[in-house]
Amino acid sequence: QVQLVESGGGLVQAGGSLRLSCAASGRTFSTYALAWFRQAPGNEREFVARISSRGWITSYADSVRGRFTISRDNAKNAVYLQMSSLKPEDTAVYYCAAGTTEYNYWGQGTQVTVSS
To answer: DSSP E strands: which ranges in 1-116?
Structure first.
């Protein structure tokens, strides 16, 4: 069982940066792939970024590649999303997720609002 708690969201101007954190409980954290998803009002939840269990492999949505960086610290049971050059269209609730073949565990989300 893994519990995930996101933090670091807030209001930022376009072009600014934010760093999201996701703290996890559970001894098996290092065995899970981790990901960030987001959901804007009226839209479906969409994939943002993923990182493998050891942190060796990452992947990104086209819309954020080159601007966002996902990382993890297995010693701290944490995953991060560094977001730069933020755009108003990045406004959404951001969720972290953990799993192996599918994402079984989800956090409650943190709001990111980018003003123009």
So the answer is: 3-7, 10-13, 18-25, 33-39, 46-51, 58-60, 68-73, 78-83, 92-99, 103-106, 110-115
